[in-house]
Amino acid sequence: MAEAPMSCDCFVSLPPGSRDDHVIFGKNSDRPQNEVQEVAHYPAESHPPGSMLECTYIQIPQVEQTHAVILSKPAWMWGAEMGANDQGVCIGNEAVWTREPVVPGEALLGMDLVRLGLERGDSAWAALTVITGLLEQHGQGGQCKEDPESFSYHNTFLLVDRNEAWVLETAGKLWVAQKVTEGVKNISNQLTIGTEISAEHPELRSTAQAQGWWDGEREFNFSEVFSPENPPARMELAKRRYKGGTELLQQHDGSVTAEVMMSILRDKPSGICMNSGGFCTTGSMVSVLPRDSSLPCIHFFTATPDPSRSIFKPFIFSDCSTPVLRVVSPQFGPDDPVRQQPRFQSQVDRRHDLYKAHQVALNTMETNPDEGLAVYEILRDLELQCLSEISAMLSGEIPGDELGDLFFDCVDTEIKFYQ
């Protein structure tokens, strides 16, 4: 029997797929099982003209103004697996392989592009143009895990704001995009855009024709033309997972809420919540983006592995939010193995406080299931209480500014329960 699919999954529900007049975004980040994912907030900033930005591997010119962002990110890299900005934009990415070869050498990681899109884009479309522009200038590539063994890929993205979503699929510097304005949609580790193309790289079709992948006469189908003839096993296995995610979304079509999205990310039978082949779900995110721009967007993060054994904690952008350092990993400066040449020749302990406490709790669940289950049930009650308060805020019963420190409070409470 084939092993469970190993891939990330991104989901979006737009009205009428959502129960309320909200856009709901969700993602599970499936990464090497011992990799630590931190949740880090970076405020909006102004930058001097001509300044440079140090990404994971390369420097690029900085822009004069960047938006505030909240990111769920592998602690060793500059970029992020998923996140949101203070303009109501959310982005998640997926690994993908295509007929275009992965160019050796270091460039921008797909995760760098997620963060750059959030820092520079004030809408899903604006973030998409940021990402495609940077692809054209700097390309994508580089080692994608904290290990000297080579592992690199191209990327697909789901970009979402209060009004619409965009699926962006790339092959080297080439790209194609599909606009989604209603209903439900998910992506996994494969090309999904066929003939319904909303925007594309100007040289996409001419390149495909020059390579002999498309005859220029039949209808252009991106996924058929650019999918590799012999795809990696994880892409083939992801087809089952993509189908399972689609089925789960369709089961809830018309009634999707934040709680429903969390339940989808926790689903183990489909493989969406996974632990297999040295990979596992290392971080999860759900966002609620009200169509009413007078209401704040709410972003939920686990900051710990396995959402079925973690709780989602809500973050709201606020001018007076307390920094949540207990979900931020230690920094190692120039001594970091990712900064030294050759890279990744040693390992450092990147665990943050919540990650360590959660590890202890998981061990307790294994050795003393009754005690572990009791703690987890209390924490799930806390999650439900937060969801209730968020619902009350969105209906106007509670002022939003009273919930600015909810993420800090939830992290602090979770650690105390584990201890």
From TrEMBL:
Highest taxon listed in the record's lineage: Eukaryota
GO MF annotation list: cysteine-type exopeptidase activity; dipeptidase activity
Transmembrane region(s): none
Pfam families xref list: Peptidase_C69
GO process terms (BP): proteolysis
Gene3D superfamilies reported in the protein's UniProt record: Penicillin V Acylase, Chain A
Family (UniProt): Belongs to the peptidase C69 family. Secernin subfamily.
Protein name as catalogued: Secernin-2
